[in-house]
From TrEMBL:
Keyword Hydrolase (UniProt): yes
Family assignment from sequence similarity: Belongs to the glycosyl hydrolase 17 family.
Protein name, entry field: glucan endo-1,3-beta-D-glucosidase
Annotated GO CC locations: plasma membrane
Any one GO BP annotation for this protein: carbohydrate metabolic process
Gene Ontology MF: a single term: glucan endo-1,3-beta-D-glucosidase activity
Keyword Lipid biosynthesis: no
Organism: Citrus sinensis
Stretch forming the signal peptide: 1-21
Pfam families: Glyco_hydro_17
Catalytic activity: Hydrolysis of (1->3)-beta-D-glucosidic linkages in (1->3)-beta-D-glucans
Domain of life: Eukaryota
UniProt cross-references to InterPro entries, sorted A to Z: GH, Glyco_hydro_17, Glyco_hydro_17_plant
Enzyme Commission identifier(s): 3.2.1.39
Amino acid sequence: MVLVVAHLLLASVMFFSIGSAEMSSKVGVCYGQLGNNLPSPQESVELMIKSLKATRVKIYDANPKILKALKNIDIQVSIMVPNEIINNISLSSQTLSDQWVRTNVLPYLPGTKIRYLLVGNEILSLPDKSIWPNLVPAMRKIRKSLKTLGARKIKVGTPSAMDVLQSSFPPSNGTFRSDISESVMRPMLHFLNRTKSFFFVDAYTFFPWSSDPKNIHLDYALLESTNITYTDPVTKLTYTNLFDQMLDAV
């Protein structure tokens, strides 16, 4: 699932269409910016195109240098509203949301193909629970700003880690955590369905393998197993790798 290549995180960009229960699976790059001696945005974009042949990229903010480097390039872009301003966007007037979109989105359209605007990063995994109830209201305000300001085609979502699930094994027993299922997940899924957006999930097989290496074979986690399978006792579906198991739980 994950391979670190030249300061860029190569990953399968996974998101679910709520209305049709379909999954998109296209190779993309998670463009992290934490580190020393990182290549310039221009060099990084060239690497995405020539070496990785990426069709999508996710950045963890709305870095203007990166967005300019992606101008007039056939790569779909996901940008992100920082975690630390979600409460302010949710609790303030629509003006703050409008201002964020005017500053971080509109100047780069249509040259940069911004297709997804993600509100925060794995908010429901943060220990600070005060942000949780403000996540969906902030998503609604950002969506309203995009519509009002003429960027209707951009879909609004938020990435969730696998720990939004209370249970993921067996996959047929997949359930959201009780502390967020009604208060956050239900209104979020209604919002995503109504706006024809997607449920974004960060699914890393490394974490369940590293927490239970005795019972999860490494090859099964790396999608390289040729003779290891698991059959769900309820659905009778047989899995040949951990990644499929995790996604079915979701």
